[in-house]
Amino acid sequence: MTDSPAPRGTGLPLPTREGAEVEFEKTVPAATDRLHRRSRDRIRAVDVLFEADAKRAEVLDVLEERLRRTAAQSPLPPAARDLVELYAPHTIDIDEDLATHSRDWPLHRMPAVDRAILRLGSAEVLYGSDESPRGAIIGEYTKIAEVLSTDDSPRFVNGLLQRLADVRGLLS
């Protein structure tokens, strides 16, 4: 093994630390095929919220467009549609609750994908049926954040959704 420097394919300088070797980690895309069908439906619903946020459009307008013409290889599942429709009438209240309970993180400063995950997760935690255990719902959205977002996002999503679940009775 030689001590030659790693190639600089991008033209960007390598990070350096005095007295420490730099190790590069191999990144592997998350395997979404290991997610449950319900999780994949939730991801499709998150996509609709993400798109609406990016376009600054009404979520129901984007939903209607996705039902007519999907960007994915398959039509939008009915469960994803139901989740978006659960969120839509509560958009203002959910944003207000998220802004109130996300310590030091205003909504506009959150990564857009985290915002979409939190909005949909909040809709399910706060306004979903009582049949599904809140812990399972929070776990699903934490897993979705793990698949779709940054390394810090799962903890953030889990903590914020848990906070909302804890005060659910007070918010309703």
Q: Taking Cα atoms only, what radius of gyration do you get, to the nearest Å?
A: 19 Å
Number of β-strand runs: 0
- Can you tell me the overall shape? globular
> How much helix, percentage-wise, in residues?
55-70%
The computed structural class is: mainly alpha
Uncertain segments:
6-17, 22-30
Q: Strand portion, in percent?
A: under 5%
Intertermini distance: 63 Å
What do you see in this structure?
The protein has 172 residues and is mainly α. Helix content is 58%, strand content 0%. The chain is built from 8 helices and no strands. The chain has helices at 37-55, 59-68, 78-87, 91-101, 112-127, 134-148, 153-166, 168-171. Helix 5 (112-127) runs parallel beside helix 7 and helix 6 (134-148) runs antiparallel to helix 7. The longest helix is centred in the first third of the chain and has 19 residues, at 37-55. The radius of gyration is 19 Å and the shape is globular. Residues 6-17 and 22-30 have low confidence and may be disordered.
Topology overview:
Elements: H1 37-55, H2 59-68, H3 78-87, H4 91-101, H5 112-127, H6 134-148, H7 153-166, H8 168-171
The gist of it:
The chain has 172 residues and is mainly α. The chain has eight helices and no strands.
Considering the chains and any ligands shown, give keywords for the structure.
172 residues; mainly alpha
